[in-house]
Amino acid sequence: MSATSAASDHSDALRVSVLSEALPYIQRFAGRRVVVKYGGAAMAREDLRDAVYRDLVLLASVGVKPVVVHGGGPEINDWLARLNIEPQFRNGLRVTTPETMDVVEMVLVGRVNKHIVNGLNRLGAKAVGLCGSDGALVVARTYGDGANGLVGDVAAVDPAVLLPLLDAGYIPVISSVAADRSGQAHNINADTVAGELAAALQAEKLILLTDTPGILRNREDPASLIRSVTLSGARELIASGVVAGGMTPKTECCIRALAQGVAAAHIVDGRTPHALLLEVFTDAGIGTMVVGRSDPGGPGIARA
């Protein structure tokens, strides 16, 4: 047997092994809802965008019901610069004046959302673009004391508009813009929207695509990745300072979702091609999984 033939046989065997490993996960999650927060490098880089789109279409094709929630901060900044509006931030949040809110709404709802929808449809999916205001999916309230302007928080979620879409095989793509009860649009953090939506849908999984490997015990050492942690353990990591900075709101988002009935939450490195499939359909996964208790059982929950 030639070296080329041997290499080809090994490659074929590896593909079969990967498919075989995925089978119990496909069986477990068929018909289940999975909410994916999409952003960061996975949105900015063309090669990663294509990988995410393919992952989402594959999930839908094997019976999983994905829901996508997205932000779009870099593109908002780009359009603010084109319009000679200086971006401002306070305490890590965008100061959102009425003028800035017009740009946020235009970019997130009118551009980014439709680019994602078009990318999924191009691969054979049936994707539908929505924002939080559609069907009163998300009702906003002003965040904190209002010092950041039209920055919002989630006051209520009603997923009724999504249920017939999911049952018909559509992939809802949701931008994190929503109106308050007076009709005023607000800009809401996409992680927050994804977590509250996952809870309202009683999703099997909440997956946050980030630009970090996951929760690290030592923030300077990627090899210190915490692969699985319980709800109580995640709270302890925040209290001890292991989770700090920008990872804190993401971990808190996972904690809140699990406390409201989501089975598992994942913080996954979106810079890794096909991160979604690696996290959902392999034994090891690639990110940090937060679960309600130490060993709920079943594929895709317990990890070695």
Overview of the molecule:
The chain is of the alpha/beta class and 304 residues long. It has a domain at 71-203: 3-Layer(aba) Sandwich (Carbamate kinase), CATH 3.40.1160.10. 42% of the residues lie in helices and 21% in strands. It has helices spanning 3-29, 41-44, 46-61, 73-82, 98-122, 163-167, 190-201, 231-240, 247-259, 275-281; strands spanning 33-38, 65-70, 89-90, 93-94, 127-131, 138-142, 151-157, 171-175, 177-179, 185-188, 205-210, 228-230, 264-269, 288-291. The strands form three sheets. Strands 5-8-2-1-11-13-14-12 form an eight-stranded mixed beta sheet, with helices on both faces. A four-stranded mixed beta sheet has the order 6-7-10-9. A two-stranded antiparallel sheet has the order 3-4.
In short:
This protein is of the alpha/beta class and 304 residues long. It has a domain at 71-203: Acetylglutamate kinase-like (Carbamate kinase), CATH 3.40.1160.10.
List the SSEs and their pairings:
Blueprint: H1 3-29, E1 33-38, H2 41-44, H3 46-61, E2 65-70, H4 73-82, E3 89-90, E4 93-94, H5 98-122, E5 127-131, E6 138-142, E7 151-157, H6 163-167, E8 171-175, E9 177-179, E10 185-188, H7 190-201, E11 205-210, E12 228-230, H8 231-240, H9 247-259, E13 264-269, H10 275-281, E14 288-291
Parallel strand pairs: 1-2, 1-11, 2-8, 5-8, 7-10, 11-13, 12-14
Antiparallel strand pairs: 3-4, 6-7, 9-10, 13-14
Helix pairs in contact: 4-5, 7-9, 8-9
